[in-house]
Amino acid sequence: MRIIEQLMEKIREIIAYKNYFEDFLKEQPVKVQNKIFKILEAIETLERIPTNYLKLIIGSSGLYEARIQLGSGIWRVFCFFDKGKLVILLNGFQKKTQKTPKNEIEKAITLMKEYYENRK
Question: Which residues contact 120 (CB under 8 A, 6 or more apart)?
């Protein structure tokens, strides 16, 4: 196998839960969409994901935020791991304050619980 192919080999699979992520993505400018795809590709292919790309939300029982920055703009996409190698994308938003809004975290936690209930 060539080195480039080895570098791009997927370690994880990413899927979106329902249409929340896709609806968020469609609302973003193309440059932001491209940056989001770059971060998601890193999550799929890197053995160790840097915390500036993916960070655990403290006290959330496994909820993470994918961190996207482009120029002075900041975006977040919530996600979680299911069965270790499967990443489930939830809702996303553009961050306008220093702290992640509590209602966005609560929405993501609700969607994560819904996912697990529907999976049974």
Answer: none
What DSSP designation does 20 have? H
* Predicted TM-score of the model (pTM): 0.89
Phi-psi category of residue 48: left, alpha or beta, with phi > 0 → left and psi -120 to 50 → alpha = beta
E strands, the chain, are: 13-16, 54-56, 64-70, 73-82, 86-95
Left, alpha or beta for 65 (phi > 0: left; psi -120 to 50: alpha)? beta
Q: CB of 51 within 8 A of CB of 68?
A: no
CA gap 41, 15 in Å, rounded? 12
Q: Cβ contacts of residue 79 below 8 Å, gap of 6+?
A: 14, 54, 63, 64, 65, 66, 87, 88, 89, 90
Digits of tens for pLDDT over the chain (120 positions)?
A: 455 555 568 899 999 999 999 999 999 999 999 999 999 999 999 989 999 999 999 888 899 999 999 999 999 999 999 988 899 999 999 998 888 889 999 999 999 999 999 986
